[in-house]
Specification:
extended; alpha+beta; Yope Regulator, Chain: A; five-stranded antiparallel beta sheet; about 300 residues
Length: about 300
Amino acid sequence: MILLEPHNVIIQTTVLEKIQKPGSLDVVFVDYDNVRFHLSTPERKTVLLLSMNIRCWDEIVKYGALDVLRREYGSLLSSQVEPDYNVSLEIDLEQVPAELEARDAFVLSLAMMKRNALAAPFERGFTTQKELETKGGQGELMQVHYRDEEAMYIQAAPDRVTVIFSTVFREETDRIFGKVFLQEFVDARRQPSIQNAPQVLYSSRDPPLEIRHIPGLRNSEDIGYVTFVLFPRHFVHNSVASGTISHIQLFRDYLHYHIKCSKAYMHSRMRHRVTEFQKVLNRAKTEVATTERKTASGRTMLSR
């Protein structure tokens, strides 16, 4: 299966292009989760302004999103946020590292702007889990409503961090495909080579016990809840934790992307089979021969 990348390809390719050839720019684009970006040159051709509008901004700010962005971007974080956007980065193309490897790493970090903002609740959950190892108890249940009718719920415990996704299946076939995919996640942990993978639980209608007390949760057949149980080994080192955050953020998009790909593949195979059957039927048709017969009076009579 194809793994989705955590960075925004449009940001990456556009910034690289403008580094090589500065010029006027004004482009607005939206990613998988309806996060809106605006990349422009409002003042000079050598200064890019990258702005982001994300639905759950107020929620992730409570969990330390601004601190994460300051850590990642430092002075690039603009104090003057563009109207209708939540956060802006001001990028001086003349200050971009000249070395190729350093330049690519810098541009990649810009392209991971959304990923870094959404990493805040996960990092807080990992930190809280380490504190609870000695204190005990339960951490705060963090809610991130990053899409309409869909959300992430993150809660730390003394021995784990639980991440719950709520997702909407618009069609009945999507629910069927989703159940098959999620069962594969459950069965995969039985293989000796990947037993260290996070535990995955799936409920097709009723919310998990951890979030059942939250008011306003929908109980319907088109809602599914996916629970990941992250143990300390999944975020014990910074590099491991970074990879875990990048992958788990994209789970919802990964699931629905592959559901759509599977449906498209099945439809293409069905169309192919219909075409093959039509060829067989066309070959099976026999030509009807016509013969000329005459009556006793000499009239011609066509018979088949």
